[in-house]
Amino acid sequence: MDSSPPKTITKALPRFSELKPPLSEDIIEALDRSGFEVCTPVQAETIPFLCRHKDVAVDAATGSGKTLAFLLPLVEIIRRSNSYPPKPHQVMGVIISPTRELSAQIHKVAEPFVSTLRNVNSVLLVGGREVEADMNTLEEEGANLLIGTPGRLSDMMKRMEFLDFRNLEILILDEADRLLDMGFQKQVNYIISRLPKQRRTGLFSATQTQAVADLAKAGLRNPVRVRSRAESKSKTPSGLYCEYLKCEADQKSSQLVHLLIENKNKKLVVFFMTCACVDYWGLMDQKGRDTALASFTEASSGVLLCTDVAARGLDIPGIVYIRSVAIKDREVLEKGLKAFVSFVRAYKEHQCSYIFSWKGLEIGKLAMGYGILSFPYISEVKQDRIGIVGFTPVQGITFEDIKFKNKSREKQRQQNLLARKDKLQQEKRGKRKKSSKEAVDDSNKASRKRKLTGRQRQTIQTAQDEEEMNGDYSLLKKLKKGSITEDDFAKLTGAHDYV
């Protein structure tokens, strides 16, 4: 008797050339040139539905191949449209993604497939570039496929009224969960409101939250739900191998440096919790993002420092060395403070509080790791009475004396210090003058009160008595007319006080 376990029969994934309805020969050739032959599960399920003009809501893991899952049917739908080939300003498709880098990546992947279409121009619209340049591109070269971030896309749609969306065929919402998490609900709703209802829509998301479900109800018509993780509920690809290391907060620097050295011939990405942390450790100018990403992509090895809303930040303590640098350069000191405070607040507000335990954060050691010389005031720490065990302040340092190495910045700082001191002195002088004036006024009032004669005081008292009697007489007339009751009269005249 055979006791071996039963074999699992796995259905072979189809080739792109085997999909039904079939893709055009131009697309198949472009796929062959790019080295794509066999579909991934999400591609095998999604492409046929979109090509049959079905709306789809796709639940796909990051790295599952969903970019081609919407790009290929998008190109096919445009090719088969009654409006093909389109006029220069006739928009046939829109792809919305949450970040500039992701939009640029989609635009690059789309190029070889869009190039198979006649008179179709794809345009990348993202922030960080001159608005006028994008406007000129749209006006002079036209746009038939818009790829970009919600902010810039909605802005261009408002500004460029000559863009014609009446014959739009397809809308793609990539990383829909992140679009909503990053606060783009208003912009996405505006874009959808400008598009015709008779269109195809594809919504792709790594997680299916209630907000994503609501967006699907509003933007999709009878969508087909595609789940590419039927066998596993994991939100990460099965081929991704994860490891983690537990260590003290003040040991992270040595552990991270060791990891970087051991893998110096590989490409590494270090995720941080906040932009301030990246600025502190990476020292990268915002304008260099595109250049840095391009050079990292082309390089055979390197380290990329960046943030991610879903990734835990890695602080990199440097203990004595970083503190010594902070003492010599105020820029390092200020960036360290900003990065530390932003990390602490992001940690406290993190949605996954079960893992990111606020009470368990070794905030003292963490401050040492950021090269903090004196523990700053943080309202969250004071309110929750979090201890700062492990932190040792630097003695004998006057923080105002720490200078910028950059001479122009130091000169500006000195000017600001002088201006601040002058302002404080003026405020002090103003307060002293105000106090002196108030004291004189009080003295004059008391003096005037003391100077009143007996006849004057009697005259004032008589006037007050007459005013009170007139008031009582007026109330008495109201009582006789029935405007008020006897109880009201007693309360208003104070008669109850004598009962």
UniProtKB/TrEMBL annotation:
Residues 424-472 are annotated as: Disordered. GO terms for molecular function: ATP binding; hydrolase activity; RNA binding; RNA helicase activity. Residues 16-44 form the DEAD-box RNA helicase Q domain. A motif (Q motif) lies at residues 16-44. Pfam families: CTE_SPB4, DEAD, Helicase_C. Residues 436-445 have a biased composition (Basic and acidic residues). Its EC number is 3.6.4.13. Residues 47-226 form the Helicase ATP-binding domain. PROSITE patterns: DEAD_ATP_HELICASE (PS00039), HELICASE_ATP_BIND_1 (PS51192), HELICASE_CTER (PS51194), Q_MOTIF (PS51195). It catalyses: ATP + H2O = ADP + phosphate + H(+). It comes from the Eukaryota. Keywords: ATP-binding, Helicase, Hydrolase, Nucleotide-binding, RNA-binding. Residues 187-430 form the Helicase C-terminal domain. Belongs to the DEAD box helicase family. DDX55/SPB4 subfamily. RNA helicase. PANTHER family: RNA HELICASE (PTHR24031). The Q motif is unique to and characteristic of the DEAD box family of RNA helicases and controls ATP binding and hydrolysis. This is ATP-dependent RNA helicase.
